[in-house]
Amino acid sequence: MLNLNSKLSEVPRIGNKYGPILDKLDLKTIEDLLMHFPFRYEDYSERTYISDLVQNEIVTVMGEVIQSKVVRTWKKKMMITECYVSDETGSVRAVWFNQPYISDSLTKGKGVRLSGKISKDLKGLFFSNPAWELSSREPTNTGRLVPIYPETEGVSSRFIRWQLQSLIKHADEMKDPIPENILRGLHLPNLSQAIKFIHFPKTQKDYELAQKRFAFQQMYLVQIASQRVKIAWDKQSAVTIAFNENFIKKFVSSLPFSLTDAQRKAAFQIFKDLEKPMPMNRLLNGDVGSGKTVVAAMASLAAANEGFQTAIMAPTEVLARQHYISFCKLLKNYPDIKIGVLTNSYKETNQESRIKNQGKKIHDSKFITHDSSIVIGTHALIQETVKFKNLALVIVDEQHRFGVGQRAFLQQRIGEINDGLPDKIPHLLSMTATPIPRTLTLAFFGNLNLSVLNEMPKNRKTIITEMVGARSREKTYDFIRNEIKAGRQAFIIFPLVEQSKVLTELKAATEEHERLSKKIFPDLKLGLLHGKLKSNEKEVVMAAFKNKEYDILVATSVVEVGIDIPNASVIIIEDAERFGLAQLHQFRGRVGRGEHQSYCFLFTGSNTLKAKERLGALVQYSSGFDIAEEDFKLRGPGEFFGTRQSGIPDAAMQHITNVKLIEIASDYAEQTLSDSPTLSKYPLLQKQLEKFQQDIHLE
Predict the structure, then answer these.
(1) pLDDT of residue 434 exceeding 80
(2) What is the value of pTM for the model shown?
(3) How far, in Å, CA of 234 to CA of 475, rounded?
(4) Is the residue at 182 inside a domain?
């Protein structure tokens, strides 16, 4: 007897043949398949008479097969199935390529529904590769609003629709985690009804209502997760870190640059938070190159001046190392402040030589976490085995890489961290690598206080950005040669490390490095940096580039953040249309860090209007905040996050821009937690929340 938890391989029409293929889509059980939502719909619901057919229209016709045959074309060795269908107004031809079995099903006299686009050739109007069904069957692939699903090789949307036809009855077994009174108040369908609406809508209103329900469910869970963390956080206490204005002013005056007003404001907000006896929970939402690092350094310095430790967590070892180098430079006038870096590959401090003279082991992790004022590492720093002496401040870089569940867990771990301060938890400062659009800040970061860095340093020159087609490549290569002659350096970025069977045509960085070295720039020195290098190997390549041992660095997206080469003035991004705007803006931020005018060239082979519109936004805007909003507008929230990465279904993501929905979800979440802080009254909701926090991730 099949049920929601039955494995798909146990379903007779799926079995061991299709079970492993569906597994690639992370579909293991009947419930998984029911929760596999369409990302769009084809409207085949309106029947059209054959006499009313018009070229290029998408239509559905119903009729009777009057002739069916299979023709082989010898030139292309292709099997063409031709079928003539008539209704009371006329007849039409339908053509399928390399699907001879269709002719066996569509025999003379059979009733059939055809749905698809009308084409035209010398013989007249015809259907090219239409969806079809015998009219005796309940409409699944034709004659209705037909859902289109995420697919994989061997499993088409047609196959998924066919399976759902017999499995949709199991939707009635699903228990709804959303309290009934909330659904009633919002006029939203219950879970089983919403599942039926989303897979088998009779009208557009049906699937839109289902999408709205799932959007509310996701946002309601987001808000509950956020608010629970906030409630628990606000009950905690932290050490107060006094703001020594003269001490900080002295540090600021020693900097070789002036702070922007935005940096000053953000730093002041942080200092005010640190003075309070409850833990800070602030998000520093900043543009590329807006100076987040120096703000983080000021906060760390304030903590160190009061005798407390700061832990700084970066998403990668390369970035952790980069922060370590930056902090050592910024705080070089403070020899008593010990700075340590602790990752799998790096264990050192800024006082290594002095420590060695004292006979202490520099590679002792416990020594670094116990004896350093500032400890920089990856997220391994919050593991249970790591012990600090008196950790009062935690700074998390690239906060956007964590989903709600991870952020909640991160805060929970920070609350439990062995910080050496009994009954206290550290203050928390989170930083983003790229600006987050306002709506998403409201949706996903509602439990944090916000500081915005939307100003660039005054001496920073705007990077000149251009789109470059195939014909202008040589001209751009000549431009690079001239820049290098003038003493500058350049980046060339590629999307992949090695050839991919899926993304054919894309040049792999390794092959391109060889081609560029031999054919384009034989007289120049080119380095290669990609994600498969070990951390210390990346370090060697970057150090060599910084020391001008290479003129050009050929790299994959590993250079997205954390590489600071002030002498680099040109960046070429190959196949630029393959990247999101926010990521392209990050790449662009690798240049323009010195005194020289910098340039970004977006190489693209795409002539589509969509690609030109997206890349045009990067040419038009230099502000990351403008680009984030544009990216969000053009791609929608699902793609903005990367749907596969977010764990939130596309259907729900489409409604996340709805500020009203976020506010309603927030209000209901507050009411629910007020009624039952531990959710003991709502066990189904508690269970769904646990699953949700495991699933959602933004990296």
Answers:
(1) no
(2) 0.68
(3) 59
(4) no
